[in-house]
Design goal:
single chain; alpha+beta; Glutaredoxin; Glutathione S-transferase Yfyf (Class Pi), Chain A, domain 2; 2 domains; 7 helices; globular; binds glutathione
Length: 209
């Protein structure tokens, strides 16, 4: 397998952490997003959506989203299970991933990409250019703050986001919180359970990648 990564990008970090939690050793190819390597003809021929992560299988098939990469790896390497062990846990994890993507990850992206000087006309990832809308940045910041506050309720009395074992939902939320630091929105100080959970996840080996 080959994994197209960018060491600073949150989306490929989702997959990097997942690979590490599975204990896999995968050939990694660094894509230089800062210098727009992802928009080159060469990379377009690998992923026409011009984004990382990309996972290329031994058979040469490529998966070009975090969800596609995760699903392939989970089915191919079931241990340890990261996307649920029974029907209810699978559904709960899928719900949390969806919610975090929309209300967390995309909220941060909206906040960041609509204002950052280096992202002029790159308000949305992909092969097409879109102009920044500064008002959307303010909305993204507000939505991110609401997402951060919601985590305490999601955790409840559990040790992990989707219950009592580590899962892809923890990776999703953990990486999204790291991404939110780019727009300087931290976990609220009084969110005790969330802060304790974040510290626990940070201590995992996969979290240092
Ligand atoms: N979040 C999605 C989308 C992937 C994505 O947006 N990746 C970003 C890196 S975080 C990217 O490739 N950006 C290229 C750009 O900024 O044009 C996923 O994980 O599959």
């Amino acid at each position: 397998m080959k994994f197209y990564d960018c060491s600073t990008a949150p989306s490929s970090r989702f997959v990097r952490m997942f690979i590490a939690e599975k204990g896999l050793d995968v050939e990694t190819i660094e894509v230089d997003l800062r210098n727009h390597e992802h928009l080159s003809e060469e990379f377009r021929s690998i992923n026409p959506y011009c984004t990382v992560p990309v996972l290329e299988t031994e058979e040469g098939t490529r998966y070009t989203s975090t969800q596609g990469c995760w699903r392939y790896l989970e089915e191919k390497f079931p241990e340890p299970p990261l996307m649920g062990r029974d029907i209810e846990e699978k559904a709960r994890i899928a719900d949390l991933i969806w919610r975090t993507d929309i209300d967390g990850f995309f909220a941060v992206a909206e906040g960041l990409r609509n204002k950052a000087r280096g992202m002029k006309d790159r308000a949305i990832t992909g092969p097409n250019n879109y102009a920044q809308i500064p008002e959307l940045s303010d909305r993204g910041m507000a939505r991110t703050a609401v997402f951060m506050q919601s985590l305490e309720g999601i955790l409840g009395e559990n040790d992990f986001m989707a219950g009592n074992s580590f899962s892809a939902a923890d990776i999703m939320v953990f990486v999204t919180i790291g991404f939110a630091s780019w727009i300087k929105i931290p976990i609220p100080e009084d969110a005790e359970k969330t802060n304790a959970w974040y510290k626990r996840i940070s201590e995992r080996k996969s979290a240092s990648l």
